Amino acid sequence: MATEARPFHLVVLGASGFTGQFVAQEVAREQVVPEQSPRLPWAVAGRSREKLQRVLERAALKLGRPTLPSEVGIIICDITNPASLDEMAKQAAVVLNCVGPYRFYGEPVVKACIENGTSCIDICGEPQAL
Ligand SMILES: NC(=O)c1ccc[n+]([C@@H]2O[C@H](COP(=O)([O-])OP(=O)(O)OC[C@H]3O[C@@H](n4cnc5c(N)ncnc54)[C@H](OP(=O)(O)O)[C@@H]3O)[C@@H](O)[C@H]2O)c1
Question: Which CATH number fits domain 3-129: 3.40.50.300, 3.40.50.10380, 3.40.50.2000, 3.40.50.720?
Answer without folding.
Answer: 3.40.50.720
